Amino acid sequence: MQRGSEILILSDKDISKERIAIPSLLAVSAAFSYLREKRLANRVSFIMETGEARDIHHMACLIGCGASAVYPYLAYQTIREMCEKGELKLPYGTAAANYKTALENGLLKVIARMGISAMNSYHGAGLFDALCLNREFVDEFFKGTPLSIESDGLSEIEDSLKRRHAAAFETPEPSLDPGGDLRHRKGGEWHAWSPSSVIALNKFIKRPDHVLFKDFSRTADERPVFLRHLLTYKKGNPLAIEEVERSDLILKRFFSGAMSVGALSPEAHETIAEACNRLGIKSNSGEGGEDPLRYKSIRNSAIKQIASGRFGVTPAYLASALDLEIKIAQGAKPGEGGHLPEHKVSEYIAALRHCSPNTLLISPPPHHDIYSIEDLAQLIHDLKQANPRASVCVKLVSETGVGTVAAGVAKAYADIVQISGCEGGTGASPISSIKNVGSYWETGLAETQVVLMENALRERVRVRVDGGLRTGKDVIIAALLGAEEFGFGTATMIAAGCVMARQCHLNTCPTGIATQDEKLRGKFRGRVEWVEAYFRALAHEVREILAEMGFRSFNEAIGRSDLLMVKDKESPVSKRMRLDERFVQYPAGKPRRSLRARNDNPAPSMNDRLVEELRPFIEESTPVEREYEIRNIDRSIPIKLNYFIALKYGNEGLPPDIVRLTFRGVAGQSFGAFNHKGVALTLIGDANDYVGKGMFGGKIVLKPLDTIHALQRQVIAGNTVLYGATGGEFFAAGRAGERFAVRNSGATAVVEGAGLHLCEYMTRGTVLVLGEVGQNVGAGMTGGVIYVFDWDNSLKTRLNASHVQFAHLTGEQEIAQLKTLIERHYQYTGSLWAHEILSTFPESLRHIKKIIPV
Question: Three-state DSSP class for 734?
Answer without folding.
Answer: coil
